[in-house]
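User: Before I run my own analysis I want an independent prediction to cross-check against. Here's the chain; please return only the structure tokens and, at the end, one sentence I can use as a sanity check.
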Amino acid sequence: MTKLFTLFVTIALFTAPAAAASPVKARVLSGIGIVLLNSELAAKPSPLAIFREPSLGRITEVDINSLPALAQAITCPDGSIPAIVTSKKSGWYRIIYDDGEREGWIKGRSSHQFYRWEELLRNRTASLISGLRKEFYLLHKTPDSSSDSIFTLGKGSRVTALEVEGDWIRVFTDSRMEGWLRWRDENERLVIAITL
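Assistant: Structure tokens:
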């Protein structure tokens, strides 16, 4: 009986951590904005050349459809593929090109549309993603975490962004409240979701 009990305990110890250790996918890095890659390219296999520096040191080619999925934070109804841009230089975009958050440069095309977060968020409806710390659901009087909070939003609450100031947006809520809300955290990860 003792051997059988020991066997069950051993199995439980070696299998339970494996199930509990499945990684939680990190929220999307914000970068400086997004580039929308043409949906026509997504319809057929389209290699996207990734460079170490603009025009120099080709690293790899990735299929446009294998870029990191941003559905948690960005929905594109027209079928365009969004990519997070971390830097921009003379018609080139430094993007996050895989789930390991590696970065490389792509050559801009006329069919690509680039948006800085400041212009993308203004006058757009956004919703808070789930699983955030309590502080991200607080609406503040000013764009500062130490300012008084005036309202607590629920998970999935929808807001309209009126103004962008750094990591904060001044919003108007469905319940007719107005205040400041963080749109990205201290690690520059998005805490909101938007539909383009």
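Sanity check: Residues 123-195 form a domain with the SH3 type barrels. fold (CATH 2.30.30.40).
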